[in-house]
Specification:
The chain has 682 residues and is mainly α. Among the domains are: 13-198, Growth Hormone, Chain: A, CATH 1.20.1250; 543-678, Arc Repressor Mutant, subunit A, CATH 1.10.10.10. Helices cover 72% and strands 1% of the residues. The chain is built from 28 helices and 3 strands. Strands 1-3-2 form a 3-stranded antiparallel beta sheet. The radius of gyration is 28 Å and the shape is elongated.
């Protein structure tokens, strides 16, 4: 975040009770739509190709969505800060729904790819703005719980996406993969329009539109060159050479732009940090190998093994299980040991091994063996993604905390887009050659050729069994190079992992990161979605999580001791609660505390006797001494969080100090701590 950006003031639009629940469910629906559309298409792709043709462009159905989402996330996030999130969010839903409706109406592969890009633009807004809106409407103490649930949404989408895609193909039409978004998105649109309050705070940004366009243009040129080269055009053709030349020019333009931009898409100073550079390179290679290879697994299962689209989704469940186990498990182990380097080393090696094993599969490979291979692939991914984010957060300065976090996911998404396009080109080239070889000299019925079989695999059922076997074997042979080519890329990531500098999580800030690791964000490990985060939001998320843990373990009595006060935990809670909300009726304060009036009476008496509160006609209010005492408690909480974030030098960053000041007032006196009130003698 730029130093010119203003820290957010306390929000006044926090929602509660039924309103919060309704808004949250609508946000969950919107997030689910964006997450599903990264996975739901995979099992439908073979059927889409059979219907629309264009097998050579199959990879672009995935790539277009990934590129559009990745290119727009930062712009959505900064526009939301600057102009308010409600109406931008409604716009993102509308763009996503328009894209979905157009995808369902596609008449050829070109239209589908273009409409998927429109979907991706809206999807980028859904992913970024849902998490930002939670920060607007949920009290600071509760945000970790609510935002953590979004990670679970990506986990559910990883499981449900392939299954739902297969179900719609088998029982309705592949077009329902996109049409299903319309009623769900319309419901979210109406609820958000009616119930969500408009954001009252604004944060100024100097948005790097030029940098975003140049970087997106560079990515598109590279992806087009690698997917068209050797298939649509020869590698030495003017088109391919021109695309590579354009990518170099655009990359140079982005570099020049980033040097001058106040808030560049990717700050160049990040690349002077060896941990970030290595983590970004590993993410790029891992995304390239993994997402590129995984996109072709449903095609292998449905064509070579002849399973239905739904069952092909079931076959992929072991991969998701492996990701879940290691995403959570690696975080727990890092939290205990404070070390992380070993996990990307193991993960990238296992990734290379799993991809090699996938390259050995053919039409006779038993199902349990394939399940084991898929499990190993998922297992490796869970050891890489979340761990790299923890590594960069532990190594960068506070000013780069948000950009470094977003940068790692950016490189993974770009790597995935490259991988899908490159492997799509490899598969298409190999299949055309292998089908010609398999069908050479074999008499085919009228209207059949290698090209027609390649464009519609349903025609296989009309051919003699021996010919079917030869064609299936050709498909299997064509997919081998896809997985095998991914192996050296994975080995590159393995080699880079050895150069990842380990900075042990031993500092106070490291304790914060231990808590971050302990509650792994499944959205990072499973969804592969790009993110846009500010340093202030990232630090606030960590500090709130750590503060909540500390208060649950030690109570407010420890806070009183830190402030030099001889008060019970319950008395501290009452003082900070009244400081936050002003004079309050005794029965209402007891209700907020979760105790009876009789149970809360000793605490009130203690404070009245010490001259810290007054009681007039049943209304409790702070005295001047009470206000000063509450301020001491807020200050003690601020100082404690400042100590825990010492690695990011809060004293040198006015924005971070403002965050901690605001957060200390938001965290203390919270209803989540109301159990403190009956601890009069602690």
């Amino acid at each position: 975040m730029s130093s010119t950006a203003q820290a957010q003031a306390p929000t006044s639009q926090e929602a509660h009770g039924r309103q919060l629940l309704v808004i949250y469910l609508a946000l969950m629906l919107a997030m689910l739509l964006a997450a599903l559309d990264q996975t739901i298409v995979s099992t439908a792709l073979p059927t889409i190709v059979n219907d629309l043709g264009g097998l050579a462009h199959l990879s672009w159905v995935v790539t277009a969505y990934l590129l559009a989402t990745t290119a727009t996330t930062q712009i959505w996030g900064k526009l939301g800060d600057q102009y308010g999130r409600k109406y931008l969010f409604l716009g993102a839903i509308a763009i996503f729904l328009v894209g979905s409706a157009l995808c369902g109406q596609s008449r050829n592969m070109g239209e589908l790819i273009g409409f998927r890009a429109i979907q991706g633009v809206g999807g980028g807004g859904l992913i970024v703005l849902t998490q930002a809106i939670i920060a607007d409407i949920v009290p600071a103490r509760e945000r970790g719980k609510y935002q953590g649930a979004f990670g679970a949404v990506f986990g559910v989408a990883s499981v449900a996406g392939p299954l739902l895609g297969g179900f719609f193909v088998d029982n309705l039409s592949w077009r329902w993969v996109f049409y299903i978004n319309l009623p769900i998105g319309a419901l979210a649109l109406v609820v958000i329009a009616v119930v969500l309050p408009a954001t009252s705070t604004r944060q100024r940004h100097q948005i790097d539109y030029l940098g975003a366009v140049l970087l997106a243009g560079f990515a598109i040129c590279i992806v087009l060159a690698t997917s068209w080269g050797g298939t649509t055009y020869p590698w030495n053709s003017g088109v391919i050479i021109g695309l590579f030349a354009a990518s170099v020019v655009l990359l140079g333009g982005w570099y020049a732009s980033a040097r001058r931009a106040a808030e560049p898409v990717l700050p160049l100073r990040l690349f002077r940090n060896s941990v970030f550079t290595m983590a970004a390179a590993i993410s790029l290679a891992a995304g390239f190998a993994l997402f590129g290879a995984v996109s072709f697994l449903p095609l292998f299962l449905q064509v070579v093994h002849g399973v239905s689209p739904t069952i092909s989704g079931v076959y992929l469940l072991p991969m998701v299980l492996g990701m879940l186990l290691t995403s959570v498990g690696s975080g727990q182990l890092i939290a205990r040991t404070g070390r992380y380097k070993i996990y990307p080393i193991i993960g990238t090696f296992m990734m290379a091994l799993a991809l090699f094993l996938l390259s050995r599969m053919d039409e006779s490979t038993p199902t349990p063996v394939m399940n084991l291979y898929f499990f190993l692939l998922g297992f490796s991914l869970g050891l890489i993604i979340q761990v790299l984010i923890i590594a960069v957060q532990n190594s960068v300065d506070y000013a780069d905390l948000g950009a470094a976090t977003s940068g790692v996911t950016f490189f993974r998404s770009i790597g995935g887009a490259f991988g899908v396009s490159v492997f799509g080109a490899i598969f298409t080239n190999q299949l055309a050659s292998n089908l010609r070889a398999a069908l050479h000299g074999i008499p085919l019925p009228p209207g059949f050729s290698a090209a027609t079989v390649q464009s519609d695999t349903k025609l296989l059922n009309k051919l003699p069994p021996a010919v079917q076997h030869d064609i299936l074997h050709a498909y299997s042979l064509s997919l081998h190079p896809v997985f095998l080519t991914a192996v050296p890329i994975a080995l590159v990531a393995f080699g880079l992992a050895w150069f990842l500098r380990e900075v042990p999580l031993r500092t106070a800030a490291g304790e914060t990161l231990r808590n971050t690791a302990r509650s792994a964000d499944l959205g990072e490990g499973l969804g592969g979605a790009p993110t846009e985060r500010s340093s202030a939001a990232e630090a606030e998320r960590m500090a709130a999580r750590l503060s909540g843990t500390d208060l649950r373990r030690f109570g407010y009595a420890k806070l009183a001791r830190d402030a030099g006060l001889d008060l019970s935990g319950g008395a501290c809670w009452v003082l900070t609660r009244l400081a936050r909300q002003g004079p309050t009726q005794g029965p209402e304060l007891a209700r907020q505390a979760g105790v009876t009036v009789a149970e809360g009476h000793p605490v009130a008496e203690q404070l009245v006797s010490r001259g810290l509160i007054t009681r007039n006609d049943g209304v409790l209010a702070l005295t001047s001494d009470g206000e000063r005492t509450a301020e001491k408690l807020f200050r003690a909480e601020h100082d404690w969080m400042e100590h825990m974030l010492a690695g990011w030098s809060p004293e040198q960053h006015a924005e971070l100090d403002d965050v901690l000041t605001r957060l200390s007032r938001a965290l203390l006196g919270d209803e989540a701590d109301r159990y403190q009130v009956d601890r009069v003698d602690h």
